[in-house]
Amino acid sequence: MKRFLLSTIALASTLTISTAMAAETDPVRIAVLMYGNRAEFVQLMEQYGREHPAVVSGQAKLTYYDGRYDASVQNDQGQMAINTLHDAIIVNPMDYEANIDIVTNANDAGIPVIVTNARLNTDQMTSEVVSDDVEGGYLEAKAVLGQLECAGNVVIIEGPKGGSGEIQRGQGNEKAIAECPEGAVAVLERQTANWSRAEALDLMQNWLSSHPDQIDGVIAQNDEMALGAIEAIRAAGLEVNDFAIAGIDGVTDALRAVKAGEMTSVLQDARGQIQGSIDVALRAVLGESYEPQSIIWDQYAGDLDWADGQSARYDIPWTVVTEDNVDDLLADRQ
Amino acid sequence: MSGTTPIAKPTFSLQKYGIVLAFLGLCALVSLVCQIKVMQGVWPVNVFLTLNNLMLILHQISVNGVLAVGMTFVVISAGIDLSVGSVLAFSGMVAASFATRYTGVTVWSDTYMVLAPVTAALLGGALCGAVNGWIISRFRIQAFIATLGMLLAARGMTMAVTGGNPISALSPDFRWFGTGRLFGVVPVPVIILILVFAVAWVILNKTVFGRYVYAVGGNEKSARTSGINTRAVLMWVYVLAGFLSGLAGIILTAKTGSAQTAAGTSYELDAIAAVVIGGASLAGGVGRLTGTFFGALIIGVMNNGLDILGVESFYQLIIKGALIVIAVIIDSRRMSP
């Protein structure tokens, strides 16, 4: 009996030592909770995440979770990530309110949690690495109104009603319109197409019916819907070039449309958001000695300050994509 | 009383044309509101009643209409197919993977760029349908469950085809199926829609197979005892539904110019709505394609009309929900006086 006890203790201590030693060399395990993986933008984030130097070198290991567009599924996955002993969580949340649990639970478990891409209505997270949607909405509306020289009729195709994207990009749209002389720009219609190209196609076709020869500009709150509007204009036998059109995100199709001179896109930097998040997560796990490895800190030098990974919020800048800079961005997608 | 009372005839015609009247009533309502706006000086003409807008409505219902044809067969056979939206997305993705010009392969001819995607999509759709039909007829699994499985599996396959990315930059020849126009007026999807309805109408009403579908849906047991191979009938019903989902996938992909992994999400509900508004009974054995056609038209006119009138999206959903239920209530009262 005594011998058994002794050997158990010996075994247990060996195990402890070996796990402790393994921890030294083990990669930092980061759980990345995506709200859903059907959007191209999320695919891009995942791809750029895998290309982060620390992931490539094996210093960090990412586990992606697909939240299946369901806030409660995502909360469960947050708990799962904690239970499976991840060192940090990066979350791209489905819902502004419903996913706050993920932050709360991570804090209870004592692991860093970084919010990226979308927002959460809390300030308890380690850090946010996001792009300001109000600014994005402002920039795209500015592009349309600039092309129209602040005179004419526009329609606004909105994201899903009540989502933070729709609300904040909408605020940006309004801000830009308000900078034009009063009454110079009329918003003929505003309606949601739920980020969907097919829905925006139908919606724009209906508007072209109800406002024949009246629509001058299309402000779509994402690229997919701008592309749907372009298809609608074409299907109606009209000239795409007679319309000022803009969208947000910089998805590949939109970049091609920019190159064809059909629209303006405002690039939301998927690489900046995910790679920035990874650097901040690694700094939180590994401590002061960690130096950021992503190229984005050099790329945005002056606009984006690393601040030793301690900022509560990192604003990844938007890039307005025009025919001048589209080639470089397209080359990056191949 | 014998069944040949003089009032039998008008009741019969109302039964047959009630859905047409409902459709005309809805059109009259929308154009009335539009006409009021014309009188207020909002529009120079009634924009709802232009030839362009009517073509547009047909264009917009083409995808749902094609799905609803398959769904009509399924519902008459006392089944349901929840997988049509996912199968549409899968077929569309398969089609796009053959029709895209960004695969790096440049030796493919223009003809190949049309034939290959169309064949692959129709085959892919029919195969998904065959799996549904096999599971339902062979293992006697409820259609709801079997097709729910396919709803998930086909969505997964859609993403697996490309690792979750959309496929775009499709060949212009392929895109003709969505954006082309015959004689410069009639959109190609509308032609496809009408052809599909015509052929399906003949199959359902003029062939033995069509009569068997009604028989299986009315009472499967007595259909079997009277010598009908009910398994084969069910099998072909789901193959047809899958095949038409593939066709709808081709139209949608060609229309939007891109195959998206989220395409067709919840389209099964619109297709079922069209069939049910058209007078089919989810209990099986009852339904007709003309009804489905007008059911799809009613949904299309609602979507188009409410957008044209600038109705806020919240109220659009409420109005659509109410109209679907009202249409079915009217229908059920008509059927059981």
UniProtKB/TrEMBL annotation, chain A:
One GO cellular-component annotation of the UniProt record comes to: cell envelope
The record's subcellular location field reads:
Cell envelope
Q: Which residues form the signal peptide?
A: 1-22
This protein's record includes keyword Cell cycle: no
What is the predominant subcellular site recorded for this chain?
A: other
Domain Periplasmic binding protein per the UniProt entry, residue ranges: 30-288
InterPro entries attached here?
Peripla_BP_I, SBP_2_dom
Q: Which Gene3D superfamilies does this one have? A: 3.40.50.2300
Sequence intervals crossing the membrane: none
Gene Ontology terms, MF aspect: carbohydrate binding
Arranged from A to Z, the UniProt key words for this protein are: Signal
Where on the tree of life does the source sit, at the highest rank?
Bacteria
Q: Which Pfam families match?
A: Peripla_BP_4 (PF13407)
The record's comment on protein family reads:
Belongs to the bacterial solute-binding protein 2 family.
What protein does this entry describe?
Putative xylitol transport system substrate-binding protein
Organism (species): Roseospira visakhapatnamensis
From TrEMBL, chain B:
* Keywords annotated in UniProt: Cell inner membrane, Cell membrane, Membrane, Transmembrane, Transmembrane helix, Transport
Question: What's the superkingdom here?
Answer: Bacteria
| Annotated Gene Ontology cellular component terms | plasma membrane
Task: Kindly list the places in or outside the cell where this protein is found, as annotated in its UniProt entry.
Answer: Cell membrane
GO molecular function annotations of the record = transmembrane transporter activity
Q: InterPro entries under this entry?
A: ABC_transp_permease
A Pfam match: BPD_transp_2
The cross-references to CDD domains, in alphabetical order and at most eight, read: TM_PBP1_transp_AraH_like
Q: What is this protein called?
A: Putative xylitol transport system permease protein
Organism of provenance:
Roseospira visakhapatnamensis
